């Protein structure tokens, strides 16, 4: 008798909102591996919509929304934990990114993460590493529409990673105006890219690699032109790049480009991408480069599956940061355990999984004192600065902002008007986290190992009630004074903290 397993395989999807194109890939989880079942790509040219004030124009916003509308059709029925959407360079730069994200909410019922450049580089490396199983140290180069990521790593671990502000869309806009194509414009684009590379060249050369791998549209397009030109192995070499540059410069405009293997939609940005890659080859003395289909979207997929089956890289990042800044781990754990205990007692706002918010609270509690490494006065502000501006693998920009906000408001005056604008999370989600962390830090202000007694919390919107054991405050007069001060802070913010004993 044959048993049939009717359980449907888990399906996951990743969207890469790039500066030139949006990509979506859907995969089925089969055993220990992923099976790609569909890919979708739409040329959006988001970066070309950035004006001199770094605002996206309405046409670019609409192109992006139109693409997300199409992608949303494919994702009907997907649970939120099975979809990740990452926005890169252009939305990192756009001053009005919040406008785009707000309008996207009604189209795409999943959070859009704006990820830092270093996080983009790490995820690109992960995507390539999973699709390029070769052993040895790899240099990964990914030239996008607005930025270029350069990573050195081995197996699934990165060693050196940078994101540089040079991309085929932005360089086309800056160096090939009115589609003019000549040796002067091309040389200017090359020089600009070489200047961007200058600060990292020595470090990369010193570190070294066994194999150079390129990913994404620019390098794929160059490879396809070389194959059509008779180089069937598709390997990109310095000599072949120089020959290709000569071919390109034989045309007067980017619109005139007529190269075998070059698609019409790639023509406008091809010369700019070629200039950047030739500058990277020159700066790093690259002999040859192969192409990989893996990129950011695959990295998102594989990490989603890793989070499903294995440990979360963000936990490793938080633990490493705690060690780096030599925090008092005993005190951090006291506050973390207390915050966890209190947060479990309250009913939070619907809309986001309580477990997701609880995880952010745990990381915030663990790292609430990183700023002590700078100085005690104002350490909560120092902690916020470090969490907002450090490189934190696994965290998107909004998650770092949330952690920074939690530790910023862990003590002293509640200047809530200083809270940053958020898109994935709302203030109504953060307020309970802030209140919980403040109570946890206040009750552990004595920094002693003696466990806290049974403490009950009842939360009704802005009014929270703390119930302590009878007589406990009279035996802890310093703590009692701290709690009275805390009540004053709450009152000035329009909140209320009631304290009683029973």
Automatic annotation (TrEMBL):
Which parts of the sequence belong to the Ppx/GppA phosphatase N-terminal domain?
Answer: 25-307
Q: Please provide the record's keywords in A-Z order.
A: Cell membrane, Hydrolase, Membrane
Which reaction is recorded as catalysed by this protein?
[phosphate](n) + H2O = [phosphate](n-1) + phosphate + H(+)
Q: Name one Pfam family in it.
A: Ppx-GppA_III
Localization per Swiss-Prot or TrEMBL:
Cell membrane
Q: How does it sit in the membrane?
A: Peripheral membrane protein
Q: Which cofactor does it need?
A: Mg(2+)
Q: Name one GO biological process term.
A: polyphosphate catabolic process
Q: What is its EC number?
A: 3.6.1.11
GO cellular component terms attached to this protein's record = plasma membrane
- Tell me where the signal peptide lies: none
Q: Which GO terms describe its molecular function?
A: exopolyphosphatase activity
Per UniProt, residues of the Ppx/GppA phosphatase C-terminal domain are 313-487
What Gene3D superfamilies does the entry give? 3.30.420.40, 3.30.70.2260, Exopolyphosphatase. Domain 2, Hypothetical protein af1432
User: What NCBIfam families does its record include?
Assistant: exo_poly_only
Family, according to the entry, reads as follows: Belongs to the GppA/Ppx family.
Q: How does it assemble?
A: Homodimer.
What is the name of the protein in this document?
Exopolyphosphatase
Q: Which organism is it from?
A: Photobacterium frigidiphilum
- GN (gene name): ppx
